[in-house]
């Protein structure tokens, strides 16, 4: 049984999660995966082309185009999508918080900075009961997710106290909203929180998402981790 000093903070955090969850659900903070027969809505988005984003990231244009045109990363992106669904993702953005002890908690949607900060504080304080409320908010627990390795696109350290794996779609406006929130979190918790980006393009509603995802993998190959994040920041308007 936990010490009493944790009960009040835990209750506060849980209440915060529930309030944020209600706001999130009412405001429609994510895209869901459409069914096979569903005609899903789409939104016009002003996005750079993969080539434009690659040039901003500083990789050679000719080398990028050769990589991109080869389609060599199509299977890699498809693998990420399968992993996202296996992990419990039903829309974007879908994230998983991993504690130092290896416990995993789902975070669904583009939660606001204050809510994400509360979640981080609960995780750092070892508030497992509070974090467990995320399962209910997300509609279930984390499924069979691929482990985080040095091969992932990571902002921060693999040795961080908390790792947040985000499954994201480059054309999703809610992902674009969540992107600066995660950037702020990683910067504020310097060294304590790491951010992993994995691909989750919802192709049935976002025609530009997969090309941008495959392009980001080429950029990572040609320019490394920093170039990947420069590409990603640019696509999301950062």
TrEMBL record:
<keyword id="KW-0472">Membrane</keyword>
<feature type="domain" description="Thioredoxin">
    <location>
        <begin position="123"/>
        <end position="238"/>
    </location>
</feature>
<dbReference type="Pfam" id="PF13462">
    <property type="entry name" value="Thioredoxin_4"/>
</dbReference>
<dbReference type="InterPro" id="IPR012336">
    <property type="entry name" value="Thioredoxin-like_fold"/>
</dbReference>
<feature type="transmembrane region" description="Helical">
    <location>
        <begin position="6"/>
        <end position="25"/>
    </location>
</feature>
<keyword id="KW-1133">Transmembrane helix</keyword>
<protein>
    <recommendedName>
        <fullName>Thioredoxin domain-containing protein</fullName>
    </recommendedName>
</protein>
<dbReference type="InterPro" id="IPR013766">
    <property type="entry name" value="Thioredoxin_domain"/>
</dbReference>
<comment type="similarity">
    <text>Belongs to the thioredoxin family. DsbA subfamily.</text>
</comment>
<keyword id="KW-0812">Transmembrane</keyword>
<dbReference type="InterPro" id="IPR036249">
    <property type="entry name" value="Thioredoxin-like_sf"/>
</dbReference>
């Amino acid at each position: 049984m936990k010490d009493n000093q944790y009960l009040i903070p835990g209750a506060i955090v849980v209440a915060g999660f529930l309030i944020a969850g209600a706001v999130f659900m009412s405001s429609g903070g994510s895209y869901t995966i459409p069914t096979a027969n569903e005609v899903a809505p789409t939104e016009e988005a002003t996005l750079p082309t993969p080539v434009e984003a690659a040039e901003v990231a500083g990789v050679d244009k000719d080398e990028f185009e050769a990589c991109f045109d080869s389609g060599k990363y199509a299977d890699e992106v498809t693998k990420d999508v399968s992993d996202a669904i296996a992990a419990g993702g039903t829309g974007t953005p879908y994230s998983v918080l991993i504690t130092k002890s290896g416990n995993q908690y789902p975070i669904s949607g583009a939660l606001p900075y204050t809510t994400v900060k509360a979640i981080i504080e609960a995780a750092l304080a070892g508030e497992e009961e509070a974090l467990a409320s995320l399962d209910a908010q997300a509609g279930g627990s984390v499924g069979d997710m691929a482990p985080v390795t040095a091969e992932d696109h990571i902002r921060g350290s693999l040795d961080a106290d908390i790792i947040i794996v985000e499954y994201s779609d480059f054309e999703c406006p809610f992902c674009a909203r969540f992107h600066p929130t995660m950037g702020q979190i990683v910067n504020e918790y310097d060294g304590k929180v790491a951010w992993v980006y994995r691909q989750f393009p919802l192709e049935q509603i976002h025609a530009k998402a997969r090309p941008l995802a495959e392009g980001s993998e080429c950029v990572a190959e040609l320019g490394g981790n920093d170039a990947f994040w420069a590409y990603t920041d640019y696509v999301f308007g950062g």
